[in-house]
Amino acid sequence: MAKKWIMFILSISMAFIINMSISKGLASPYAPVAVLFFTIIFVLLAVGILKYPWYSLALAGYVFAFTAYPYLYGEKSKYVKNFINWSIAYASGNEQINSYIIPLSIFMYAVISFTIYAFVVKLKAFYIAVGTGICIFAIQWYGFVDHAYTYMLYFIAVSLIYYAVAKCPDQVVDTGIIGWGLIASVVIMGTFHIMPVNVKPVSWQPLDQWVQDTFPIVRTWRGGDIAGPATTGFSEGPQRLGGPAVADDRVVFYVKTTAESLYLRGAVYDTYDGKTWKNSHEKWTVNRDGIIPLTYSKNVRGRNISIEIMEGQIKTNVLFSALQPIYVKIPDGTFINDEDMQLRYNGQVSSGFKYTVTFFSTYSRSKGDENL
Q1: Residue 207 has pLDDT above 80, yes or no
Q2: Residue 5 class from Cβ within 10 Å (0-12 exposed, 13-18 middle, 19+ buried)?
Q3: For 118-127, 258-267, 353-362, which range has the lowest pLDDT when averaged over its residues?
Q4: Which residues contact 311 (CB under 8 A, 6 or more apart)?
Q5: For a Cys staple, 362 with which of 124, 252, 302, 309, CB 3.0–4.6 Å?
């Protein structure tokens, strides 16, 4: 097989491995076949863009003028802002399920595919491409994406094969040699992967302690002898248990109500995976009229109570409520809720955002107080 085609296929393989690791880290809904399809498409686009840069620039300008402009300066600019805010929150560990994960995944596939092809094939900057890939895997692994370790091993194996092919003086390469080399690399890397990885290497304790004292954030990373970052304040998603917590004294929200006693609820998690409590299934539905059906029996006595909530010093899409909300009044009238009555706004909100929630409060059998 011609040398250039082998190098092209190997460059696609390198990009695909990184994209698979990115997909795992983002909890992307795409299967490996779909990730491979996107990788091939974006690599082919990279070939065309780098081969015809001026035509590609003109086409990009046309697309921007007639398609992207409304998303940046027109009515749809709010979508882009919410997408950016959500991406930052998602990368910070606040796992949320909504449609933004799809454009974020495709965007990352495109960036990785273009970068790897440009550095490896077009610019002949093999070491920069490999270094970039290893940095991505390292950042993911420090962010508790366990699969990143495995993908890094196979990325290194494919990179070594690419390097050997690139250094081959012949223009026609024996595919049999490449096949045996790939098998040997996979076996070696696989054997290395199943070996115990919890054996700590030689460390310089004084230097390690100095780094942790100088940069306290490294204590929240993997290898900092804690399970993961955690905070005592408000959290949008599940957090890994174990280790010291980071104090957060920010005001989350303000409540205005006429009720004498009031208990607000948080998310309920029903599954423990050994590290984190989370929901075994979440099904969100879009609500545009603000009305939520009452789940109590008609024989249950109670009354409706309205509370006005104003967001504090946080940025979130969580809407706070008491148990059994029946009506939510927000500025644009659209939100999402799940079967456990968790409420989320269709976008990020910040300090000063106000909304009203009406909920059904049952009467206590022993007292007249509300039992929420």
Answers
A1: no
A2: exposed
A3: 258-267
A4: 252, 253, 349, 350, 351, 352, 353, 354
A5: 302
User: Residue 10: in which H helix or E strand, if any?
Assistant: helix 3-26
Residue predicted with more confidence, 80 or 229? 80
What CA–CA distance (Å, rounded) separates 105 from 31? 12
Q: Which residue has the tokens 């290898």?
A: 223
Q: Do residues 292 and 330 lie in contact, with contact meaning Cβ atoms separated by under 8 Å?
A: no
**Of 236, 255, 261, 247, residue with least CA distance to 318:** 236
Backbone phi and psi for residue 201, each to the nearest 5 degrees, phi listed first:
-75, 180
CB distance 244 to 212 below 8 Å: no
Which residue, 151, 158, 150, is CA-closest to 185? Answer: 158
Nearest to 47 by CA among 21, 9, 18, 19: 9
Instruction: Confirm if 365 and 323 have CB atoms less than 8 A apart.
Output: no
Question: CA–CA separation, 95 vs 18, rounded Å?
Answer: 21
Alpha carbon distance 324, 319 (integer Å): 13
Q: What is the pLDDT of residues 220-277, one digit of tens each?
A: 555 554 444 566 667 666 666 655 566 677 788 888 887 777 777 666 677 777 666 7
CA distances from 283 to 31, 40, 99 (A): 20, 32, 13
What is the DSSP pairing of strand 285-287 with strand 335-337? antiparallel
Distance of CA 270 to the CA centre of its chain: 21
Q: pLDDT tier at 293 (50, 70, 90 boundaries)?
A: confident
Q: In terms of pLDDT, which residue wins out, 214 or 125?
A: 125
Tokens of 237: 């998603």
> Does residue 143 have a pLDDT over 80?
no
Q: Average pLDDT of 111-123?
A: 90
- What pTM did the predictor assign? 0.51
How many of the other CB atoms lie within 10 Å of CB of 339?
A: 11
